[in-house]
Model the fold of this input.
Amino acid sequence: MSEKKGAVVTIDGPSGSGKSTISRMLAARLHYTYLDTGAMYRAVGLKVRQAGIDLDNPADRPRLVKLLAELDLQLALAARAGEETRVFLDGEEISAAIRTAEMGLVASRVSAEPVVRQKLTEMQRQFGLQGGVVAEGRDTGTVVFPQAAYKFYLDASPEERARRRWEQLREKGQEMDRQEILAQIEKRDRDDSSRALAPLSAAPDAIIIDSSVLSVEAVVEVMLARMAPA
Ligand code: DC
Done:
C-alpha cells in the first residue's frame, strides 16, 4: 500500500449499511483521517432548524444562503482511533444532538438543496487535500472525490439495516419501534436515491460490498485486501 500512502478512500452507501463503523475502523487501520460527511449535513440541518428556516418557502432562500456563508462548523478528530467525530457548531458541541433518527431525516432534507451541497462539497474537498483520508457519505466517490484511489459502496438489506439502527439507538438510550425505523430507512433511501443532485449511487469504479451477512471486521479485511498491491 506504500505507493498509495496519503490516498483518499471513499465509502458510500445507504444508512445502516455499517458505513460509519467500518469507515472509522478502516481509517484507524490505515492511520488515515476519518471524514464523516453525514455529520456535516446533520449539522447544517440542525442550524437550519435552529434558525427556523422553511426550506419550502422561497422567501427564506436568502436566509439559507446567509447561514451557509457564515457557517461555523468544525470537525474534531476523535481522541481515540475508531471513535465518532466530534462536531462543533458556532463553537458548541453538537455531536450527540445531531445523531438522532429525527436529525437524519432533517439532514436528508437539507442535503437535497444545491447551495448546501455546494458548500459542504467544497469543505470536504478542502479536507481531502491533506490526503490520507477515509471519506464516508452518499456521494464521496461520485461527486466529492471522483479521483479517489479506492472507492467502496456498502449495501445491506433494509431489514438488516433497520435492525442495526435500532440497536445503535438503543445503545444511546433511544428506544424506538423497529417498524418505524424500517419505514424511516426506506423513506430516506427513496429520498437520497431519487434526488436530482448527487443522488446516492455507486460510482462505476466502486467496489460493491454487501455487508448483510459479513461482520464489520470481515468487511474491513475485504477492503484492505482490495487495497493491497497485487
Ligand atoms: O450518513 P448519515 O446518516 O449521517 O447522513 C445523513 C443524511 O445526510 C443522509 O440521509 C443524506 C445526507 N448526506 C448526503 O446527502 N451526502 C453525504 N455525502 C452524506 C450525507
